[in-house]
Amino acid sequence: MSRRKVLELFYDVVSPYSWLGFEVICRYRNIWNVDVRLRPGFLGGIMQASGNSPPAMVPKKGAYMGKDLARLAEFYEVPLRQPSDFYQVVIKKGSLSAMRFVTAVEMSHPEFLEKVSRELWMRIWSEDKDITEPDSILEAFGMPMIVAHIDGKKPQMYFGSDRFELLAHQLGEKWLGPVPQKSRL
Ligand SMILES: N[C@@H](CCC(=O)N[C@@H](CS)C(=O)NCC(=O)O)C(=O)O
């Protein structure tokens, strides 16, 4: 029987913040006793369809993001490292073929979805290696996007890997920081 609380995580491996959200959700799956549904999508298509653009396209935001990610990597204990050529890897090459592959894994071997996704993030966002349709979330504008289904209430959408405190509040659960195993509270 399925549990009452379901968290859907919409993500793309091109998105470093999605990686943070993904690892936190995986860490909390048993602590919060929620079902996690991983929903791979193509962020480039969502950006285009919603008229948004990656934050790093604004040079000052891009520079800030580099510092932000370095601090977050340490705090979240996720081995994020900027690719050496950000523009080429993230913007020019992008993730269309990688996310098609991840979607194929979701359809044919869902048991490998978590591992394959983590492996691709490791390649692009940690090891500086190559990874080479927007779906049902056209109302979204960025990733990670988390959709929480709680006790049959109207599903709630949360954008970002920095909204877990709020999500915990809605779930009626405790937020123990990004690394719950060594809670800093
Ligand atoms: N504050 C969010 C930022 C997440 C973020 O910037 N995601 C990017 C992709 S890596 C995005 O989709 N941005 C859309 C936007 O900022 O409008 C977090 O900490 O997770």
Automatic annotation (TrEMBL):
Active-site positions on this chain: S15 (nucleophile)
Catalytic activity, reaction form: RX + glutathione = an S-substituted glutathione + a halide anion + H(+)
GO biological process: glutathione metabolic process
GO CC terms of this entry: mitochondrion; peroxisome
InterPro entries assigned to the protein according to its UniProt record, in alphabetical order: DSBA-like_thioredoxin_dom, GST_Kappa/NadH, HCCAis_GSTk, Thioredoxin-like_sf
Residues annotated as domain DSBA-like thioredoxin: 7-140
A GO molecular-function annotation: glutathione peroxidase activity
Keyword annotations from UniProtKB, A to Z: Transferase
Recorded superkingdom: Eukaryota
EC main group: transferase
EC number, as in UniProt: 2.5.1.18
UniProt keyword annotation of Signal present: no
Family in the record: Belongs to the GST superfamily. Kappa family.
Name under which the protein is recorded: Glutathione S-transferase kappa 1
Organism: Hymenochirus boettgeri
Taxonomic lineage from the root: Eukaryota, Metazoa, Chordata, Craniata, Vertebrata
